[in-house]
Design brief:
The complex is a heterotetramer of chains A (208), B (123), C (93) and D (152).
Chain A lengths: L1 H21 L3 H21 L3 H25 L12 H18 L11 H4 L4 H11 L5 H9 L1 H23 L22 H4 L10
Chain B lengths: L1 H25 L3 H23 L21 H32 L4 H10 L4
Helix pairs in contact in B: 1-2, 2-3
Chain D lengths: L1 H29 L3 H30 L3 H31 L16 H8 L10 H20 L1
Helix pairs in contact in D: 1-2, 2-3, 3-4
The chains are: A mainly alpha (208), B mainly alpha (123), C mainly alpha (93), D mainly alpha (152).
Chain lengths: 208, 123, 93, 152
């Protein structure tokens, strides 16, 4: 029963992915991406990864959708109606997929308890048996994340910080380039505005 | 038959991965490319999580009591927790770049941008 | 009992997904996705009870809220072509 | 005896909920028009969530003896009771505002044009999209301030 639920949810994911490929409207694709993340998170629950499901629901489905909508509100939301389904791309993708499927043939089956990942005495077994006494929290994922692999989490925080700085420097700073004069009454032009205010500036373009 | 049931999840992951890759290769729209990147990322998360699942296991949260249940493998969960957050950070930077590109060129179609860039005397 | 509920919910999700792909307008898709999200919440709740560890209902709670917030965000986008910066100018879009 | 009663009640609630959600999904697929689909989906969504939630609460309290789960399930039902209708209302209103014309039983549009639908959706006279509402409020405030200053 558990495997059946997981498999059906996976099939839903494939259907949604096909929908994302076929649909031309970007807004529809973004809505479908939200549904995709939500389904994926549901499947994570079925696969016992509750922490991952939490993060995927909040970050993948929530924040990511809002980010895409924000980006679309600055740009256009129609994809050009063109037949750009090239046979080369299809061939490349099919060949790559076939190779990957060939690679899965000798992998341990879904749910196998005897695969190398499950029985390695230094990884899963050790965390499952010792983390309760060594670190403390009942949630083993928390112990591993914050203690055994704490530097990983530190690096993650640094990456998120760097990404935030990159977004701010791309969008938030005042633009002064030759050839693109900001209009006199543009809100981002007045001194003392915060970068967040400048984010709201309507797009000014040379070509439209 | 057993092989199909056992490996079905991996095959689905490969199909999802290829769907994302196809969108990234064949679609010229930049936002669509990022959506494809999101698909690809999520399929990788899936690959890891399916490998950590143990049949009949439960989530790796210790319970008080004498009978300890079978737990799934917590290590992939930890790796993927990090990857999800980093993935969203990547999409955020990519979308910011797209917004800047739109301001500069007035288009988010990769081929149109190439044409516009070729027409300009100098960048 | 839980197995029956889960099967019914999976059928329901398949039907709503069909409408998501079919839906002629964006509103149909959004409605179907919203409905799909509600069904996911129920599925997770029932699944937790089926496996005998109903401690993970927090996730279902988060889903219910995220689903609502996402729907409202998309609707706001439809209405204003914007997420509400208040500086909307018709000629720019 | 009591256990049997509990099981019977939660079974009945679960089946009723399943009938709700499945009929809602069938309506979502089979109905001809956005608004009828909305009607089918939104009602059964909320109703089904409440009924299935009640079944699960009964199970949590009496079978699993897990009151925390019952409280969480109660919260889910509580939130759905509010968010479901709100989302449906917002969806219908935005659809009307964006010019989706409802049709009658024969598939004939009941309004003449999308613009009429937009006008119908705007319950307020002013065009708040372009800030005229804000301007009106500002004018009212100015008038009020002037009056106050005149008195003082």
């Amino acid at each position: 029963m558990e495997t059946l639920v997981a498999d059906v949810l996976l099939t839903f994911l494939v259907v949604i992915a096909v929908g994302i490929i076929v649909l031309r409207d970007l807004l529809a694709a973004v809505i479908l991406l939200g549904a995709y993340s939500l389904t994926a998170a549901g499947a994570f629950v079925v696969m016992d990864a509750v922490d991952v499901a939490f993060t995927e629901a909040a970050v993948g489905s929530g924040i990511s959708t809002i980010l895409f909508l924000g980006a679309l509100s600055f740009t256009k939301h129609e994809q050009k109606p063109r037949g750009n389904d090239s046979w080369v791309a299809v061939l490349f993708v099919v060949v790559t997929g076939a190779l990957l499927i060939y690679g899965t043939l000798d992998m341990p089956y879904y749910g196998s308890a005897t695969s190398a990942a499950q029985t390695n005495p230094d990884l899963a077994v050790r965390f499952l048996q010792q983390s309760g006494s060594e670190v403390g929290p009942p949630n083993i994922v928390t112990s591993v994340l914050a203690s055994y692999r704490g530097y990983d989490t530190l690096g993650e925080t640094m990456v998120v910080f760097a990404a935030g700085m990159a977004v701010l420097s791309l969008l938030g700073l005042k633009r002064r380039r030759p050839g693109l004069e900001a209009p006199e009454d543009a809100p981002g032009d007045t001194p003392g505005e915060t970068p967040a205010d400048a984010l709201d500036e309507p797009p000014t373009s040379r070509h439209t | 038959m057993e092989k199909i049931a056992g490996l079905y999840s991996y095959w689905v992951v490969v199909v999802l991965m290829m769907a994302g890759l196809y969108i990234m290769i064949a679609r010229y729209n930049l936002v669509k490319k990022i959506i494809g990147l999101g698909l690809f990322q999520t399929s990788i998360f899936y690959l890891y999580i399916t490998m950590g699942k143990v049949s009949g296991g439960t989530a790796p949260i210790l319970v008080h009591g004498d009978v300890q249940p079978v737990f799934s493998n917590p290590v992939p969960h930890v790796l993927i927790l990090t990857a999800i957050v980093v993935g969203v950070a990547t999409s955020a930077v990519a979308l910011a770049l797209i917004v800047r590109i739109y301001e500069e060129f007035g288009s988010i179609e990769a081929d149109e941008i190439a044409i516009i860039e070729a027409q300009e005397p100098e960048a | 009992m839980f197995i029956a509920g889960i099967l019914a919910l999976l059928v329901t999700m398949a039907l709503t997904l069909w409408r998501t792909l079919l839906g002629p307008t964006l509103f149909d898709r959004l409605l179907a996705v919203n409905s799909f999200g509600t069904k996911t919440v129920l599925l997770i709740a029932v699944y937790g009870f089926m496996t005998g560890r109903p401690d993970f209902l927090d996730i279902a709670l988060v889903y219910a809220l995220i689903n609502f917030v996402g729907t409202i965000a998309v609707l706001k986008f439809f209405e204003y072509d914007d997420l509400g910066s208040g500086k909307y100018q018709e000629d720019d879009f | 005896m009591f256990d049997l009663l509990i099981m019977a009640v939660s079974w009945i609630l679960m089946i009723v909920g399943c009938v709700f959600v499945v009929s809602g999904a069938v309506g979502l697929v089979r109905m001809p028009d956005l608004y009828t689909r909305l009607h089918a989906a939104s009602l059964t969504d909320t109703g089904g969530t409440i009924v299935i939630g009640l079944a699960l609460i009964i199970q949590a309290v009496f079978i699993f003896d897990n009151n925390m789960a019952a409280i969480k399930m109660g919260l889910i039902v509580f939130f759905t009771l509010f968010t479901g209708p709100t989302a449906s209302h917002a969806l219908a209103k935005t659809a009307l505002l964006c010019g989706q014309v409802p049709v009658d039983a024969d598939g004939k549009p009941i309004l003449d044009s999308p613009e009429e639908a937009t006008l119908l959706a705007r319950s307020r006279p002013a065009d708040y999209r372009h800030g005229e509402d804000a301007k009106r409020i500002e004018d009212e405030m100015d008038a009020l301030n002037k009056k106050r200053r005149g008195e003082g």
